[in-house]
Design goal:
membrane; Phage holin family protein; transmembrane; Phage_holin_4_2
Length: about 120
């Protein structure tokens, strides 16, 4: 049940990003649900491999390159999902950062009793 609630929280965060950043667009709740699901799968399966491959650059930039990897995964999902668009790569980096902050805030508010 917690996994489904986390999925809905991530979809709500993704649906909120276009209201704060006009270069990201989510056309429907269905598109947000699908994009959140695929984004979760990409972050689980592909992102660790990308972080391993870019480890030297990440160490050289003191961890700042992780923002680029997050933006790339956000942009990649936007290329795959119909109804979820990002206008540019740098918009994807900003959108990924904003999505992470909103998702973290919602998760800390709504899932705080489940951990304790």
């Amino acid at each position: 049940m917690r996994l489904v609630l986390t999925w809905f929280i991530n979809a709500a965060a993704l649906f909120a990003v276009p209201y704060l950043m006009h270069s990201v667009d989510v056309t429907s709740v269905t598109a947000a649900l699908i994009a959140a699901l695929i984004l979760g799968l990409v972050n689980t399966l592909i992102r660790p491999l990308l972080l391993l491959l870019t480890l030297p650059v990440t160490v050289l930039t003191l961890g700042l390159f992780i923002f680029i990897v997050n933006g790339f995964t956000f942009w990649l999902v936007a290329q795959w999902v119909e109804g979820f668009t990002v206008t540019s790569f740098w918009a994807a980096v900003g959108g990924a950062l904003l999505y992470s902050v909103i998702s973290w805030a919602l998760s800390s508010l709504l899932l705080k009793d489940a951990d304790g």
